[in-house]
Structure formats: C-alpha cells, structure tokens
Amino acid sequence: MGTIILLALIVLVAAIVVAAYNGLVRKRNQVENAWSQIDVQLKRRHDLIPNLVETAKGYMKHERDTFEEITKARNLAMQANGVAENAKAEGQLNEALSRFFLVVENYPDLKANENFLLLQEELTSTENKVGFARQFYNDQVLTLNNAIEQFPSNIIAGMFNFSKAEYFELETLEERDVPQVEF
C-alpha cells in the first residue's frame, strides 16, 4: 500500500513538472513568434522608407540633411539585434521620420503627389501594424515572465534555465510627452 502511494506521488510530481515545462516552452515559443511578427512589420517599414524618400527628393532638393538622417536611422534600425537595440534604433527612426514629415509640410506639391500619398498611407498602415505587433509581443512577454516567476513553474523555470523576456518599448521623448491641444 505504501509503495502504491509513493508511486502515485512520484507520478503526480512528474506530471506537474512535465506540464509546467511544456507550458513554459509554449510561452517562450509564443514570445518568439510574436517577435517574428514585429520583425516582419519592421522589415516592411524599412522597405517603404527608401521609396518615400526617393519620391520626396524630387520636390525637396534643399533638404539633404533630412534625407541623410532618415537613411542613417533606417540603416541602424536594419542592423539592430535584440529587443533593446531594436527598440532604441526604431525610436531614433521614428524621430527622423517625424522631422521628415514636418519638413514635408513646407512642400504642398509633394503633399499632393499621388505616389507620395500612397507611400505615406502605406507607411502609416505599417506603423499601425507595428504597434499592434508590439502590443501582442509585450502581452506574450508578460505571460512568459509571469509563468517564470509564479509557483510552481518558477521552480521548473529555474531548473531548465528559462529566462525572462525583454519588453519592446520605444524610448523617445515624443512618446513620453503629453501632446498639448490648443484651440
């Protein structure tokens, strides 16, 4: 009788370990999948930017610094590795694009150009997709990080070297500032 209870206890503990381990693996894979969705949207964004810049160059012959800044920021973003480095590079690219669109306001012919408007709309759509992908990724990171810290999966996470994932947060001054509305 004692052997059966001991055997049942061992089977129960093994089942808990297997379930916790499989849950952690699933959550880690969901985080990796969510990151790949961000990566796809960032690549799409990076591919759109040169077309937008080329379209604008014909109209904005005196804005060389603006074009160089966007190109430099895009290249840094494309070379970034890891969540933190990507977040920093994408924040810099966002700032460069914001300055670019402020300069565009001075060129009414460019703002009326059909190709430019289509590219601008496509970039806006991609920005929205990046935002949604970033939110989904951060939700998956939260789920994984909670599992890594909660009992009893924290024991399994420690035994099998699961580590917390990093959130994808853009750190720009513009995103932290509250916009002022004036009438």
Binned strand content: under 5%
Number of strands: 0
Derived from helix and strand composition plus strand pairing, the structural class reads mainly alpha
Rough shape?
rod-shaped
Written as H for each helix and E for each strand, in order along the chain, the element string is: HHHHHHH
The Rg value, from CA coordinates, equals 24 Å
Q: Look at the structure and give the mean pLDDT.
A: 88
Unreliable runs: none
How many structurally independent domains? 1
CATH superfamily: LemA-like domain
Kindly state the percentage of residues in helix.
over 70%
CATH architecture grouping:
Up-down Bundle
**Gap between N and C termini:** 82 Å
CATH class equals Mainly Alpha
CATH topology: de novo design (two linked rop proteins)
| Largest pleated sheet | none
Helix segment tally: 7
